[in-house]
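Sample log: Phospholipid/cholesterol/gamma-HCH transport system substrate-binding protein.
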Amino acid sequence: MKLSKGALAGLVVFLVLVLFTSVSVWQTLSPPVDGRSATYTAEFDDATSLKRGDDVTLAGVRVGKVGDTGWERQSDGSVRAVVSFAIERDVELTENARAEVKFADMLGVRYLGLIDPGGAAALERGDRLTTLGKPPTDVTELFNGFRPVFRLLDPPRLNQMSASLIGALEGNTDVFEAMLIGMLDVANVMLARQAEIERIANTLPDAFDVVIERRDDVEAAIEGLTALTENLASRNDDIIALLDQGGSTMDKFATLLDTTMPDLRRSVAAGIDVSEEWSQNTEEYRGLLESLLRTGEAVNHYGDYGSWLTLYICTLSVQVDDFEADLFNLIGGTHSEVCR
């Protein structure tokens, strides 16, 4: 089959147009880096879905493209992603620069965002960013965080609201009126709580700033709570046994209280009586304690001469029926000075 010169010329023109269009679309969707470029690398704990050719931005302006992605094993055995990227040579990065993996759209396309606050020495071409990059947001984990909110929603109430909305769109004035009344009720509640809502809205940024500043502590607390939960889960049988033993112990304690409760009540009542007696005779008890203190001091004084007590017999008499004789007087003795 032979093509005429006109048909061949048309085919060539068509192919040239297709090629030109394809190149234009490729250049539009994947524009190259303007002029000469400089290559840098950054480390991430996770660089999922970031691929070669993705955009690199600085302050929201596209300045380069992502190059190769790989991984490196660290000294502690962990693995980090290593991403190289090329940016325009006239764009300088400092040692304070850091990289973040961000979403370009809801379809999952990523791009590399650079943040450079400055105030440090400039990086040489080919250097690695000193700050660990921020990994992409885990959308699944983000939506899982709304799970408690979704659990609070009442399915029948949602179905009723959906039916009301559909009826309103179909022109059902009664349903539309009911929906407006419900919306007005919600608006009135919001207006009544306007001060509280404004206070919460004003304090939320400060709370988020504190959380961001204490990010390491929050992460450590979450990790510690996770480890505690895992440890408790691994000791589930021991915990159940401990609770069972605790229940048995409390039952025995309750039985003991039931048995000894009358005696315990009498002891408490006696203690109250003693306290009242003490309160009413405070001066007498105080005098008793002071006399005991003086007695203790006197007894202590007797032992000042050594580890013994000196005893003096001042009177020694013998009595037989009605007859009594003082032995000291019979032998002509005298009393010691202590006894005089």
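Observation: The chain has four domains: 30-141, 152-227, 235-301, 311-340.
Observation: The beta strands are 37-44, 55-58, 61-73, 79-88, 98-103, 110-115, 317-320, 323-326.
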